[in-house]
Amino acid sequence: MRIFSHPLQAAHRPSNEFHNGGMTPYADVPARLQIMLRALGPVEAPMDAGMAPILAVHDAAYCQALQDVPRLWREAGRPGDAIPYAFPVVQRRSLSLSRVDALLGAHAMDTVTPLTEDSWAASYWSSQAALSATAAVLGGDRAAFALARPPGHHAGRDYCGGYCHLNHAAVAAQAARDAGVERVAILDIDYHHGNGTQDIFWERGDVFYASVHADPATDFPFYWGHADEIGGGTGEGATLNLPLPHGTTLDAFRHAQATALAAIARFAPGLLVVSFGADTWEGDPISRFALTTPSYRMLAAEIAGCGWPTVIVMEGGYAVDALGANVASFLAGF
Fold first, then answer.
1. How far apart are alpha carbons 55 and 150 in whole angstroms?
2. Which residues, in sequence order, are bridge partners of residue 102?
3. Residue 26 and residue 19: Cα distance in Å, rounded?
4. Does position 94 have pLDDT exceeding 90, yes or no?
5. CA-to-CA distance for 269 and 93, rounded, in angstroms?
6. How far is it, in rounded angstroms, from Cα 180 to Cα 128?
7. What gap in Å lies between CA 166 and CA 221, rounded to an integer?
């Protein structure tokens, strides 16, 4: 399987995040990427497809803000990484905002996703990795893997959050649509619900989004991913959420994934994008499922058995020492 990654994906290295009421060390450390690279073997540098595929999913002003905020933060005399503290949760509208805190808060959903000088480059090249994996599959490969870091599925059209700045899975899905694939499905099996992906395709009937994740009644992102969320407008019925409780083991996860795969089969996609997170592992420091390393090979084999051309995009997984083995196990299932 071809694997795509770029060295600049390791440059994004915030010091801290504001999480659970206090400043804590940032969980998405560059070592995540380095561990995966060592475990997976040969990796190809992605081609640069430019901004157009990213702007097909993300708002242009938002992309510019991601690039401008670190400089504006420095110019305002702020130390450390840029972290928002005020958010327009009501009457959200387009405004001309001069203060960096206002600009950042207008394009963010939480305080755990700092921006640094290198966040844009790392996210940009993660999306390019997803685009190169998509091109490989559209070119005839059975499957390809985008080793994205930082992850992407919490990023919406014009907001960042959950360690995510650009939504690489959404960029891949839209690129496939623009290349002529009539129907694209996204299967999200990260521990956390991919709220950004759901938002982006909420009113789209041509992209089916299915997610198996921790119940948002107890886990981030809280406000998205409940079972009654099924899409809106022409996308009604094209969203499927399968929340699971703390302590979920392989059998329960397999059952939920089988439900998602059956729904995707009815949709009959020409291409599948898998948002894969290894934070469902039993020892993950910020998650509470109980999958083991061999679980991932079994889950992947069941996805592969459906026969769809598949783009796999890396999402979460924060037990750094086990991450390489967990990702290698999943890819082995293909």
1. 18
2. none
3. 9
4. no
5. 35
6. 19
7. 17
Closest CA to 27 of 285, 321, 275, 278: 285
**Catalytic residue from among 6, 153, 154, 213:** 154
pLDDT tens digits for 228-259? Answer: 999 999 999 999 999 999 999 999 999 999 99
Question: Does 148 score more than 80 pLDDT?
Answer: yes
Residue 218: phi and psi, rounded to 5, are -120, -15
310-314 sheet: strands from edge to edge: 2-4, 143-146, 310-314, 271-276, 184-188, 207-214, 239-244
Per-residue pLDDT, averaged over 30-47, amounts to 96
| Measured distance CA(214)–CA(221) in Å, rounded | 10
How many helical (H) and strand (E) elements, i.e. helices and strands, does the chain have?
10, 9
The answer, yes or no, to whether residue 83 has pLDDT greater than 80, is yes
Q: Is the alpha carbon torsion for 159, 165, 170, 176 positive or negative?
A: positive
Write down all domains in the chain, each with its CATH number in brackets: 2-47+119-332 (3.40.800.20)
310 alpha carbon, distance to own chain's centre: 16
Distance CA 158, CA 165 (A): 9
The predicted-structure confidence for 214-223, as pLDDT tens digits, reads as follows: 999 999 999 9
pLDDT digits (tens, 9 = 90+) for 107-143: 999 999 999 999 999 999 999 999 999 999 999 999 9
- Helix-strand-coil split of the chain, %, nearest 5: 40, 15, 45
58 given a catalytic annotation: no
pLDDT > 90 fraction of the chain, expressed in percent and rounded: 96
User: What token pair was written down for 319?
Assistant: 């037990």
pLDDT band at 93 (very low <50, low <70, confident <90, very high): confident
Q: In sequence order, which ranges of 111-243 are alpha helices (DSSP H)?
A: 119-138, 168-178, 195-201
C-alpha closest to that of 311 among 152, 123, 131, 134: 134
Kindly state the helix (H) or strand (E) to which residue 314 belongs, with its residue range: strand 310-314
- Please report where in the chains the tokens 């499922």 appear, as a residue: 289
**DSSP designation for 161:** B
Using alpha carbons, list the distances in angstroms from residue 325 to 10, 37, 157, 213. Answer: 19, 11, 33, 21
